[in-house]
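Regression test case RT-17, inverse folding.

Input:
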């Protein structure tokens, strides 16, 4: 697999050179898998619909790191994910989700849906993993994973994050507040550059809203977007495409 193969298959809308490698580049791919990361089914057979083969981006040298939000990986599924990656000599780290917290988060009218959400994964080459100097424990029930690297004196902190979806109930508002506190603390601890890759489940520009109207939770101080803006981070997509 080459960068051109990926470009052709995914049919990027712009930025066709995003995976082209130059000397000294660290190529990182971020995606929201919406679950389906377990390589095995409940009966132990291989899961043909698993999205974990995304590690092939690393195996083939197209990417150095793949960050995944909403992986929906709990401690049980993590064993399968970790074994799959080890066989392919890919280093894997995770922030586990919790079924109990997911039930609490998704309570609607005193009833809980069966939706499982959260769980973050960070996959990388063993060479990049060798530069990892710390993995923070502020995982916020699988919604945040913070890893620190030292590349010969150059510090880089990477935070993978999955925001609370539609925080309208008190349970979700509580989780949203907890995540905002954890994210703020993590960013204050960064020693050098910080890269936050997130499905924020919120927006800060009306341009990104359907109909150009923000929801109430988009304006909340605990919104992931607002936390990042408040701490001085820049939106890389907006820097590249100001009007899209």
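Golden output:
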């Amino acid at each position: 697999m080459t960068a051109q193969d990926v470009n052709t298959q995914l049919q990027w809308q712009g930025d066709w050179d995003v995976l082209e490698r130059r000397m000294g580049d660290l190529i990182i791919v971020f995606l929201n898998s919406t679950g389906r990361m377990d390589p095995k089914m409940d009966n132990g057979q291989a899961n043909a619909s698993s999205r974990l083969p995304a590690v092939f981006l690393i195996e083939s040298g197209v990417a150095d790191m793949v960050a995944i939000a909403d992986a929906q990986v709990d401690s049980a599924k993590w064993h399968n994910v970790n074994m799959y990656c080890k066989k392919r000599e890919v280093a894997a780290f995770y922030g586990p989700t919790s079924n109990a917290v997911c039930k609490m988060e998704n309570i609607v009218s005193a009833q809980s849906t069966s939706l499982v959400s959260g769980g973050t994964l960070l996959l990388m080459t063993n060479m990049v993993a060798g530069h990892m100097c710390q993995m923070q424990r502020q995982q916020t029930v699988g919604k945040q994973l913070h890893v620190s690297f030292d590349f010969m004196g150059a510090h880089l902190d990477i935070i993978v994050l999955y925001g609370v979806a539609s925080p309208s109930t008190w349970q979700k508002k509580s989780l949203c507040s907890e995540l905002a506190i954890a994210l703020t603390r993590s960013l204050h601890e960064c020693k050098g550059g910080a890269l936050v890759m997130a499905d924020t489940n919120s927006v800060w520009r009306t341009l990104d809203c359907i109909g150009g109207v923000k929801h109430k939770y988009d304006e909340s101080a605990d919104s992931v977007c607002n936390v990042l803006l408040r701490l001085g981070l820049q939106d890389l997509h907006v820097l590249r495409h100001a009007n899209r």
